Amino acid sequence: MKELKKVEDMKSQELSVIRLKLELNIENADMEVLKKYGKVQTGITREVLAPANINLHALHYVIQKVFGWQNSHLHHFSLPDEKFRELTQNSFIKWADYCGVYFRFPTSDFKDIYWDDDYDESVSWEAWLRRKYTGPYQYYGYSEHFMEARAAVSYFIANNTLLRVAPSFSEWVNMSEKEKAELQAHPRVKKITEATCDEIGRGFVEEGGLDELLERLKVTEVLGKEAKADQLGALIADANKRFEENDTKAYDEYDYWQKMCKLNGTALPLTNEIIYEYDYGDGWEVKVTLVDEYFTDKQTPVFKNGKVIDGELRDQILMVILKQCPLCIALDGLPVLDDVGGIGGYCEMLAGIHREGSDHFDYDDPEETRAWARMHGWTGRMRRADKLL
Fold it and tell me: Mapping DSSP to helix (H, G, I), strand (E, B) and coil, where does residue 74 land?
């Protein structure tokens, strides 16, 4: 009877909060400088509790806040490269099945992708940003809807049965002048049904890659226990049926957004980690890892793997549920900042401020460098984790 009651109790539980580790890529950093002046122990990391229904778009703003950026450059989320290739088998036609379910169709319409670039100077930057990662979570980006993305890729396939396939940069560099001349005179042509993601992707350099995840997706629709092949097959079959049976011109009607949301469907987790890239010039990269999942029931005790959680962590989880707002619970390293030149430039800035030399900053006048950094929101002071969000 005890075991039966335990099973019934677990059935009544629902996923309420997730724990994420956000790890900045510091592969090319000067670790001596980071440890000496950046208050880094092992890396620049943050651990965050977030409502389980948070979407990737809201997570973008969480990442911006906890790492010290100010939302002033382009960004995207993607699967790790090996997971992307495993899922798509580097086939464009197979990728097309997942377009609108996981991936956005490449577009240069950044106003659409960043539809909520709506900062109002009548409120503080902090208050505006907090609204972006506090629930309820919605994302209105036009091209993010399943039906719109599917319509775009279907149109592309129908109008590009044959494609001119360009060589990769490495292939071009290794070609002889004779081979280059021959290729220009007789371009490679391939059926779109046989094209790879790499070949198609090279034609979308300015619009974004095929690997960019839809930001309307909940984090838990991407991160979690990996879906099996048969589950993904059923998911795609349902998506194909949904597209065929519904009117892609529904956007002409007044209730477009509600209709499109109903047709978006759901997705299944693919991996335990994804990659967030920000400011393609500076090249910031954050690995987002799902660390834990926490469940609650109607009586609001908190569970992990069926075991009740007490103490400070329980209180933190319940606060996230109550406020529908993420909470940072652990950190390592000072925040970074925009337009500093990536992790390498950040290390140079730290060294310059402390008069140890820098190629890009005037270390003879560290106060001027500090003033410049303050304009970007950087203070050089470590804040408590629970005060970051």
Answer: coil
**Do β-strands 327-332 and 162-165 pair in parallel, antiparallel, or remain unpaired?**
unpaired
One-letter identity of residue 198: D
Cα 299 from Cα 13, distance rounded (Å): 10
Whether residue 136 is preceded by a cis peptide bond, meaning omega within 30 degrees of 0, is yes
Give the largest Cα separation in the chain, rounded: 80
DSSP state of 255: T
Q: Spell out a b/e string for 290-305, using b for 16 or more CB atoms within 10 Å of the CB, else e.
A: bebbbbbeeeeebbbe
Nearest-angstrom CA–CA distance, 96 and 88: 9
Burial classification of residue 118, based on how many CB atoms lie within 10 Å of its CB (0-12 exposed, 13-18 middle, 19 or more buried): exposed
Write out pLDDT tens, residues 279-316: 999 999 999 999 999 998 877 788 888 888 889 999 99
State both tokens at 261.
């949301």
Phi, psi angle pair for 271, to nearest 5°: -165, 170
pTM of the predicted model as reported, rounded to 2 decimal places: 0.90
The torsion angles phi and psi of 189, rounded to 5 degrees, stand at -125, 140
**CA pair distance 229, 193, nearest whole angstrom:** 22
The contacts of residue 240 (CB under 8 Å, 6+ apart) are 97
Token pair belonging to 158: 């129908």
Model confidence over 114-138: pLDDT tens digits?
778 788 788 888 899 999 999 999 8
Give Cβ neighbours of residue 389 (< 8 Å, ≥ 6 apart).
Answer: 48, 62, 65, 66, 130, 133, 325, 326, 327, 328
Alpha helices in 202-310, H assignment, sequence order: 229-245, 256-262
Burial class (CB in 10 A: 0-12, 13-18, 19+), 312: exposed
Length of the chain: 389
Q: Which residues of 51-68 are buried (b: 16+ CB within 10 A; e: fewer)?
A: bbbbbbbbbbbbbbbbbb
DSSP label at residue 56: H
Cα 306 to Cα 5, 48, 301, 368: the distances in Å are: 12, 21, 11, 55
H or E segment and range at residue 372: helix 366-375
